[in-house]
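Page 42, continued from yesterday. The earlier attempt failed because a stray header line got pasted into the input along with the sequence. Redoing it now with the clean sequence only.
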Amino acid sequence: MTGLGYLVCLVLGIGCMLLIDWRFRLFFWRAPGAAALVTAAGVTFLLLWDAAGIAAGVFLRGTADIASGIVLAPELPLEEPLFLVFLVLCTMVIHTGTVRLLSTRRRRSQP
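This time it went through. C-alpha cells are written below.
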C-alpha cells in the first residue's frame, strides 16, 4: 500500500465520518447547504493558511513512502486538501454531536 496508503486512509476516514454523520444526522444530513458552505469555507481558509506557511518556508512537503508524491503546488501534496476536508468534517461532526448530547442532557435534567 506504499505510495497511496495515506490517500486511501484519508478517503476511508472521510467515508467513516460521513457514515457517522448519516447515522446521527449531524452535519451534511441535517443541513446539506450549510454544511457544504462551512466545509468549503473551512477548507479554503486552511488552504490559504497552508499557502502562507509555504510562502514563509515553514511548511515543507517532506518525503514519505506512504504519500502519492503528487503535488498540486510547490510543497502542497495532493493529500493536503483531502486531509483538510477530513479535518473540517471531523470537527463539525464532533461539534454537532457534542451540542446534541449536551442539549439532550439538559432537557433530561430539567424538572
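Notes: Strands lie at 71-73, 76-77.
Reminder to self: strip header lines before submitting.
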